[in-house]
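Complex record, two chains
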Amino acid sequence: MAESTVLSSSAPLISLTNVVKNYGDTRVLDNLSLAVPAGQKVALIGPSGSGKSTILRLIKGLETATEGMVQVNNQPVEKERRHRWFSHKPVVHEVGMVFQHFNLFPHLTVEQNVMEAPVSVLRLDSEEARARAQHYLSLVGLVHKAKAWPANLSGGQQQRVAIARALAMHPRIMLFDEVTSALDPELVGEVLQVIREIAHGQNMTMLLVTHEMSFARDVADRVLFMEKGIIADDGTPDEVLVNPTNPRTRQFLNILTER
Amino acid sequence: MFDFAFARSILPELLSGLLVTLQVMIAGFAAAVLTGAAVAILRQSRVRLLGGVCAAYVAFFRQTPLLVQLYFLFFALPLSGLQLPAISTGILGLALYYGAYIAEAFRGAIDDVPKGQWEAARALDLSAWATWRRIILPQAMKPMLPVLGNYLIGMFKETPLLAVITIPELFQAAKQIAGVTYRYNEPYTLMAVLFLAISLPTSLLFSVLEKKKHHG
């Protein structure tokens, strides 16, 4: 099987198998399995603490599973997670991630933020990396801020830079972890618009943890409703968001719209 | 009476003492910063033993007097076969002593770098080395700058201790002139002025640097 899976298009790009994740005594993921084929856009919704973000963090290798297996492109993530001290040769970068709090490097300019990993990980020379930074900064509409410091940008602009920074590594998978939750309401739209364009324009695999239901319906071709560490509902946006049959999903969506 | 002619005649000797002081100080400080940074980084290591050794080093060198350490390095260590020139011993002593203090300060500064910075570096697949060098240490350096300035000046003011291990630095030079000529006023006054002439501009330099950093 190991030989055939590399070429087989039916093999999922991301797979979680019987994953358990505990933080101390708290069980965040409870024997969860999930397979995401290449190119799929998956929205994860559900109450806070239901384990949505933990799934993304496991896929990026920011956490390790207590039990079970997390694989990206048929490689266990745990193995890749072992931190390399030096990287002499370019690393295959599969997974990009954007965080709720942007996490831009405050001591680097916008352009340097985007160039850092292409130079240090992909070993591009600085001219190539700068061209790449220009490309992705213009994609998020911020090429005019290339020389600015992150602290002088609005939250929405910072998050767009963070998206450009992740895209500049040419990941096959992009993880968006509540990327608009820390933003003032009037700045949410510009960030969602950028993600929408990426989702519609590129054959990229995407997982998005979000509380924006109309955005989820717009971007995702699959929606997971999570509750208490399990996937309680799994289907197309129409099935999960428009005509939910699962009573728990319906209840959750009602609470959201009542707010 | 302060005899200016005599003062001028002993100035070259004092200046060559000052030169030795500065050499030891600069080399010692550079080594102390490197030691401090290395120890602070190693203390974060997941290898328990490494962290323990670093903690023991910090505790030992912070809890014993510099003078005692210098005596030990210069007089006791050669008995176990490690014979170093006085100047190297002095540099080593300053590096180890101040390295321990700087390591503790670095540790605090590193802890203050937000966790999100580590995660962002990790998400971009930066190696551990690149994460330290390009992301964490530059941010930790910012609050470290005034601290390092204080330690540099502190170290400079401790250099007279090096006289006890026969290093011909400024204090030693002044003492020798006084011992030979029985004139104390000129050599000791000049010595004090020379110390001030170095430490005052240095402290000003660091406060300017700090202000610059705030704007950058």
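Note: The mean pLDDT of chain B is 92.
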